[in-house]
Design brief:
By secondary structure, the chain is of the alpha/beta class. The protein is built from 19 helices and 23 strands. Helices cover 32% and strands 19% of the residues. The longest helix has 18 residues. About 1% of the residues have low confidence. It binds zinc ion (2 copies).
């Protein structure tokens, strides 16, 4: 087997890796994403691939974000005709995104290409963790990465199972800020230990960032959001929250429901709207997935739903009835406030007793809201304020001093929200002196910075990417419990060079502290094929000894392996 890293290599978007074993006839890709917002985006998205798409047998997709999935339909246009292996959730979300983006890149793909995608989901339970055969002696393993709904790391195993000849590589996909002990995001469950492989391919988007404990505290984040809702109540204004359709929208809606349920009387006089058709489609279509559970010998747990919801509502994680209540609470964010089917939650604490859908039906127009003094919260897209309904809300309401705009995550400096963040601390007199204009592709929409009276706020803690600590936890930290590093060799594929270098240094340092000998490589465009068959037998034997030692210490793992063999 050999691997060829095609992208993004020093960039953050456009993930694509090519793997092949000429002898076995294996020829497949891991992810095939668009570049977005990079100077090379046009060139990448319209490139002639180094492979012949008609000879690629299948694609394994880590998650639905377009920078990992966006060029799959166009591969079908270029002759690819194989299956796309991914979770059911990823396929559902990617399908909606493709169908909503054909008008953006009509030259890249069309409805016919989307219709011809052969989505393929594994049936063997548990979906996450099992070794799914895709050919003789070729297996795929999915493990949750706590990034977005459906997102997984992908383990590829080749060679006879449970023999010393079997080798493996794991692709992290994108890793969320959700370690098992500390889930930062409210809705998504923690990442799973990737296990031990010969090779681990990692993202390093925030490889140089270490967030503070305040930034990682869900309570601090919700308090900040609550203070903006309170301000909007008292100044009878409008709170505009630009959000991404996927993940961010659900997280913000969940936090707003929590705020409203904590003090139900306080928020009767404020209207909450979700004015984001693409986001609404994704939320509705993915709602059933939150009910999915996974079971092992002892417990049934949610497959995707995070722990915060249980804690907040005073529910326990392992009571089947409580599990149903937590799932219903999550589903309520896709309902409207007057939904006749909503019957309240049973059990739990006072917040659970007060929990109810809060989003009002039929959002008013920006003009109507601008001329009314009814306190209003609008969640809208696009997340960076550049397009969609967000552009009409912002262009209409930025000039009002009762408006607050909450930016909820990283936005490039050229985007509308990025520009708003840059004037966040600028006083009104200083804004008045600015000659800058914020404009949108619609020529009727533009606002002079000199006229902006709105307060701009940045709420931390909604990023779906882990920081350096999270990345190290995914890669190495389980070693403390007697586990092993995710790979003997790490390839840092995804992330700009500053972040790749920082993460490499941090990985070496941490591995040394833990007594592991690892190699970390930063593949470049010129690297080409890397053989994954190089002999590391001494290394390997030492690893096997460690595994045997670990199994002897933890007999329950032996039982799990036996179960796996029997099923
Ligand atoms: Zn992603
Ligand atoms: Zn990514």
């Amino acid at each position: 087997m050999e691997v060829n890293f095609i992208g993004p290599l020093g960039k953050v978007t456009g993930s694509c890796t090519w793997m092949q074993d000429k002898e076995k006839g294996w020829n497949f890709l891991i992810d095939c994403g668009m570049q977005q917002g990079e100077v090379t985006a046009d060139e990448w998205n319209h490139q002639t691939w180094p492979f012949d798409p008609s000879e690629i047998k299948f694609i394994v997709l880590t998650h639905a974000h377009m920078d990992h999935s966006g060029l799959i339909p166009s591969l079908y246009d270029s002759g690819f005709n194989g299956k796309v292996y991914c979770t059911e959730e990823t396929a559902a979300i990617a399908d909606i995104q493709y169908r909503n983006s054909t008008h953006l890149n009509p030259e890249l793909f069309n409805q016919k290409n989307i219709d011809s995608i052969k989505w393929c989901h594994f049936k063997k339970e548990p979906i996450l963790g099992s070794y799914h055969p895709v050919d003789n002696d070729l297996f795929i393993q999915f493990l949750r990465t706590g990034h977005i709904l459906g997102a997984v790391s992908v383990g590829i195993f080749w060679g006879p199972p449970r023999s010393p000849e079997q080798r493996s590589i794991v692709f992290s996909g994108d890793i969320g800020p959700q370690s098992e002990e500390h889930e930062v995001l409210p809705t998504i469950r923690h990442f799973m230990n990737p296990g031990k492989h010969n090779y681990a391919v990692m993202e390093s988007t925030y490889g140089s960032t270490n967030r503070t404990s305040t930034e990682k505290d869900p309570g601090t984040r919700r308090d900040h959001l609550k203070s903006l809702v309170d301000r909007t109540m008292s100044n009878q204004g409008t709170l505009i929250i630009p959000a991404f359709a996927l993940g961010r929208s659900q997280d913000i809606l969940f936090d707003l429901h929590a705020i409203a349920a904590e003090e139900p009387d306080q928020y009767e006089r404020i209207d909450f709207y979700y004015d984001f058709p693409l986001g609404k489609e994704i939320i509705d279509r993915t709602a059933p997935f939150w009910s999915k559970t996974e079971s092992n010998l002892k417990k049934t747990r949610p497959l995707w739903l995070g722990k915060q919801i249980f804690k907040l509502l005073g529910l326990t994680n392992n009571d089947p009835e409580h599990l149903q209540q937590a799932i219903r609470a999550m589903l309520s964010i896709s309902l409207h406030q007057d939904d006749p089917d909503w019957a309240g939650l049973e059990g739990g604490n006072k917040i659970a007793a007060n929990w109810k859908p809060i989003v009002a039906n039929n959002p008013p127009s920006p003009d109507e809201v601008a001329s009314s003094n009814r306190p209003t919260v609008i969640i809208t897209g696009s997340g960076n304020g550049d397009a969609g309904k967000a552009s009409s809300w912002l262009s209409k309401l930025l000039t009002k001093d009762t408006t607050t705009v909450a930016v909820t995550g990283y936005c490039g400096s050229k985007t509308v929200c990025g520009k708003l963040l840059s004037i966040k601390s600028l006083s009104i007199p200083n804004r008045r002196m600015s000659k800058n204009i914020i404009d949108w592709s619609n020529p009727d929409r533009s606002v002079a910075v000199a006229d902006i009276r709105a307060s701009i706020e940045e709420i931390k803690g909604y990023s779906a990417h882990g920081d350096q600590e999270d990345l190290l936890n995914w890669a190495l930290r389980n070693a403390i419990d007697g586990y092993l590093p995710a790979g003997d060799t790490f390839f840092l594929q995804h992330g700009d060079n500053h972040n790749r270098n920082s993460l490499r240094t941090a990985l070496y340092k941490k591995a040394q502290e833990l007594g592991f000998n690892i190699d970390v490589q930063l593949p470049e465009a010129t690297t080409g094929w890397i053989s994954l068959e190089s002999s590391e037998s001494t290394h390997r034997d030492a690893d096997l000894n460690l595994i045997m030692e670990m199994l002897n210490q933890r007999p329950e793992l032996k039982d799990m392996i036996k179960e796996e063999e029997e099923s």
